[in-house]
Write a structure and sequence with these properties.
By secondary structure, the protein is mostly helical. It has two domains: 1-200, Growth Hormone, Chain: A; 204-410, MFS general substrate transporter like domains (Growth Hormone, Chain: A). Helices cover 82% and strands 0% of the residues. The chain is built from 18 helices and no strands.
């Protein structure tokens, strides 16, 4: 139940995150924004998201993932519902609402990792994390396509009302169905409860000594490098695929949107397939460190190779096949870095994820902007894809050489 509900929560998080990308087109016309003002609206989310990520990890460890995640969804859903009113008032309240939404969503993954540390045994972590991360492509598809449909029939404010209300409905189910401790859930069988209690990390507060021992270590630097590289590719592809199909392959706006959806379906399939393979490798005796390195490094290297090959794609079909392969390969990395947070720090997985994702959010600002600048300067998307491939290769190299899955702190 925990894994399923966090998967649904991730879907809602990404529908709320990306619906502004579609709604901003209508809002720009309605309010007469400049492109600069539109850009401020689109980027304001990441200001709140980046600034609160590490704090969210500390809160999840201190108060428990159930409580923090529930409050997180309440917060970002309320800010989503308030978006139309804030936009009507002026640009400043709208930016505050988007920053507030980013702060709310910052707790989504740290709180979930705190729960997984107690609810999911080590041999099932890759599948649990992969299912959680599957909400990213599904939520992106629902957000992009659903927002367009809603705006066409009911106007742009309704997109925020509908998705905000969905989040509040999820919160009701969350607090009703989920226990903070698996030992207290009567639906957990005795054998599963015994397995979870055996693997569960010891309880206790996060102290300064533990944080220093955890964060200032070489394996953690390798985790951050792999996380950063994966996020760079993810954010660039999320932001620029529709434009690539429109500008380079000459598709209509409608067809560009449809073509842009296929890579995320490929990622969904590859993510869950790789997770099954990963957990089976571990169950059959392959070292945990080796398994995580294979998934992370192979995913980044293959994704980089396919992005470089896109320069030779001279038809929409060929470009689509290569981009599906690139996003599918990227899905393999979610059986690499994400479950490694729980391997390295079973009790402090939320804090470690929050720390790492603070750095991994930077590509959402810098990477996306750099890609746009390269397209402007060169007149093609090749340089943007090559830069993304280079970041992926560097991330794979650092992770492959320096990562170790052995626990640093209990």
């Amino acid at each position: 139940m925990v894994v399923w509900l966090t998967f649904l929560g991730c879907i809602i998080a990404y529908t709320d995150r990306v619906n502004i990308s579609v709604a901003a087109v209508a809002m720009k016309e309605h309010f007469g924004w400049s492109q600069t003002e539109k850009g401020l609206v689109l980027s304001a989310f990441f200001v709140g998201y980046l600034s609160f990520m590490f704090v969210a990890g500390l809160l999840a460890t201190r108060f428990g993932g159930k409580r923090v995640l529930g409050c997180s969804v309440v917060a970002w859903s309320i800010f989503t519902l308030l978006t139309p009113l804030a936009a009507t008032l002026s640009l400043a309240p709208l930016l505050v609402a988007r920053i507030g939404m980013g702060i709310g969503e910052a707790a989504m993954f740290p709180a979930t990792f705190e729960l997984f540390g107690r609810w999911v045994p080590p041999t099932e972590r890759a599948r649990a994390v992969a299912w959680l991360y599957s909400g990213i492509p599904i939520g992106t598809l629902i957000g992009l396509m659903g927002t367009g449909w809603i705006i066409g029939r009911f106007g742009w404010p309704m997109a925020f009302y509908a998705f905000g209300a969905a989040g509040l409905l999820w919160v009701i189910a969350w607090f009703k169905q989920v226990q903070n401790d698996p030992a207290a859930d009567p639906r957990v069988g005795p054998e599963e409860r015994a397995q979870l209690l055996k693997a569960r990390p010891a309880a206790g507060p996060v102290d300064k000594v533990s944080l220093r021992r955890l964060l200032l270590r070489t394996p953690v630097a390798a985790l951050i490098a792999g996380h950063f590289a994966t996020s760079w590719s993810l954010y660039v592809l999320l932001s620029w695929l529709p434009s690539y199909f429109r500008d380079v392959q000459g598709l209509s706006i409608a067809n560009a949107g449809l073509f842009s959806a296929a890579p995320w379906l490929a990622m969904f399939a590859a993510t869950n397939l790789a997770a099954v393979v990963s957990d089976r490798m571990i169950a059959r005796g392959v070292r945990l460190t080796t398994t995580r390195k294979v998934m992370q490094c192979a995913g980044l290297v293959m994704s980089a190779a396919f992005l470089v090959m896109i320069r030779e794609a001279h038809s929409p079909g060929a470009a689509l096949a290569l981009l599906c392969a690139a996003t599918g390969a990227l899905g393999c990395t979610w059986s690499g870095v994400p479950p490694s947070f729980l391997d390295v720090a079973p009790r402090h997985g939320a804090v470690l994820f929050g720390f790492s994702n603070t750095f991994a959010t930077i590509p959402g600002i810098v990477g996306v902007a750099a890609a746009g600048w390269l397209v402007d300067v060169t007149g093609t998307y090749s340089a943007a894809f090559i830069l993304t491939a280079a970041v992926s290769a560097a991330g794979a190299l650092i992770f492959g050489f320096f990562f170790d899955a052995r626990p640093i702190v209990a």
